[in-house]
């Protein structure tokens, strides 16, 4: 089976069981998927804030050199602000508004910023203007953030059904138009049709 496929097993209520490489990677997270996503996001936030602070130092370092590139000055500070916005967006989506659309939007932003970080790593890795040490630290943290955001994206993709909260959660399946196999917690509740 592919990573995104689910199998329905058991004789009782049909409960989706995930299989694939992501299941093998995240077996330790399976008992508390929502908590695991929140903890992983907390760790990601530490790196995001550190990258924002470091982007300011990198901007100053490149700006103080006589032959520094204006494009890389703008890239470093813009990246810092974008990552700060990512921290606010991600916290808002995961804590306050975890609908299907907002989690999907957040996943898209994570993937784009992970790719942006690998490009910034390549740009600043061997950049000679400014402080070579500052450039190297900025590039290395960009690569680490690429790995962290990629891991966060994979974790969120794998546990998206456990993180997403339907606006009609808690309503009966007949009122919400929801299939009983999609949400096993409402199966057999009041107002649901009998299982054939």
Average pLDDT confidence is 78
Structural class: mainly alpha
Helix content: 55-70%
Beta fraction:
under 5%
What is the global morphology?
elongated
Order of helices and strands: EEHHHHHHH
Low-pLDDT stretches = 1-10, 172-189
Q: How many DSSP E strands?
A: 2
First-residue to last-residue Cα separation: 28 Å
Major β-sheet profile? 2 strands, antiparallel
Number of helices: 7
Rg over CA atoms, rounded to whole Å, is: 22 Å
Which strand order spans the largest sheet, edge to edge or round the barrel? 1-2
Give a brief description.
This protein is mostly helical.
Please specify the SSE layout and strand pairing.
Layout: E1 6-9, E2 15-18, H1 21-25, H2 33-64, H3 70-95, H4 100-124, H5 132-158, H6 160-163, H7 173-176
Antiparallel strand pairs: 1-2
């Amino acid at each position: 089976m592919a990573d995104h496929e689910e199998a329905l097993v058991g004789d009782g209520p049909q409960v989706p069981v995930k299989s694939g490489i992501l299941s093998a990677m995240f077996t330790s997270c399976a008992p508390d998927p929502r908590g695991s996503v929140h903890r992983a996001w907390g760790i990601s936030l530490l790196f995001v804030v550190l990258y924002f602070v470091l982007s300011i130092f990198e901007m100053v370092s490149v700006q103080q050199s006589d032959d520094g590139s204006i494009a890389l000055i703008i890239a470093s500070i813009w990246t810092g602000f974008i990552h700060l916005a990512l921290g606010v967006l991600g916290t808002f989506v995961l804590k306050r508004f975890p609908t299907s659309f907002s989690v999907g939007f957040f996943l898209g932003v994570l993937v784009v910023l992970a790719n942006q970080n690998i490009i910034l790593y390549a740009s600043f890795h061997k950049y000679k203007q400014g402080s070579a040490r500052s450039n190297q630290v900025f590039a290395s943290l960009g690569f680490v953030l690429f790995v962290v955001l990629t891991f966060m994206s994979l974790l969120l993709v794998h546990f998206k059904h456990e993180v997403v909260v339907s606006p009609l959660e808690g309503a009966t399946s007949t009122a919400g138009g929801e299939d009983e196999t999609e949400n096993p917690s409402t199966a057999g509740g009041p107002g649901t049709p009998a299982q054939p």
